[in-house]
Amino acid sequence: MDYTDLNSCVENYNELTNEFKELENANKEYLTKLEELGELQSKCVREISHQRYRLDIITKSLRKFKLKPEEKADAKKLRDDIEKRHHHLCEMEHCLPKPNGTYLKIILGNVNVSILNKNDKFKYKDEYEKFKVYLSVIGFALSVINLSTNFRCVFSDSWIAKYTVIDNWVKSRPCFASQARLTVLELLFMFLLVWYYCTLTIRESILKVNGSKIKGWWRAHHFISTVVSGVLLIWPNSTTWYHFRPQFMVFNVYISFVQFLQFKYQQGVLYRLKALGERHNMDITIEGFHSWMWRGLSFLLPFLYAGYLFQLYNAYTLYTLINHPDTSWQIPVLAALFFTLFLGNTVTTSVVIREKFREKYGAYIYDYSCNRSHKRHKSDETGQQKSD
């Protein structure tokens, strides 16, 4: 809206001046509150550390004492209270800024990545989940395109000879246009993998600072996958690469499909468990299998183990290429990395399944064995009475 004369402009400017004074007061109050907030945060962090220090001393002292029978009940109550206090301290920490881990310090420095608002935390977590789903779909599409481009080039002329003697095909280079397109698509896909896993590790580290409980092997899995992607990116175009390329693209098609399947189903199960209060609000979907997935997602296990076996097959294929005349250092490194991924994924998932079986059937087996031993004991007593 334009003003028609000078008086209107002056009048509106005076109104703005009054509003600006209010803004200045609000800004001063904001800065004061912000300073107070920083002081309160520092005080809370110090007090939490002090509480933990004193609680640890009390806990250690309780272990050293030789308690009298009448003191055991009080000691148990004290231990329970200490455990509850630790839980309350953890809840308090969720609303306080936390220091970055080593990885984030290397990548971002000492920038504070703590998200103090709960809604903002959930939004960031949801964006992380969407990021994984979208990139899985894009990765699937690029893998299929790379695979189809490779087959079109290989089978363009006398496909039987070129498929059975792939070394001759690589050396003869019969389709230069297809080769150029193939190389561009390869590089695009490899860059996507490197960027995806690098971004994933950073986002997961930020989520961990903000209370997410992803840990252990599944974080290490993404770091190893980042290294795998980087080594694949710098693997030169050679006979060995074109041996491995179709298999690797099929592997990516399968893995992208399984990841998409996991993310979609895990989101539903996590939402239900969070609504029931059985999971933390900052829990996220993962590539592998976790204990909370036992109910409703056990049907994914065959797909997961098939993917792990595919990783082992990749390692084996690369191992057979080590003695190839056109070999390079990337081949043994990738063979070791794929085998590490296979081993870590298989062991971690198997341990989770074993624990769930113990948890689910342990009590039943224990009761069954107790009943058997009780019956055996009774039969022994009966036999002894008869002999007497």
Automatic annotation (TrEMBL):
It is a multi-pass membrane protein. The keyword Oxidoreductase does not apply. One of its GO terms (cellular component) is membrane. Residues 6-43 form a coiled coil. It is found in: Membrane. InterPro entries: TMEM120A/B (IPR012926). It holds the Pfam family TMEM120A-B. This is Transmembrane protein 120 homolog. The lineage of its organism: Eukaryota, Metazoa, Ecdysozoa, Arthropoda, Hexapoda.
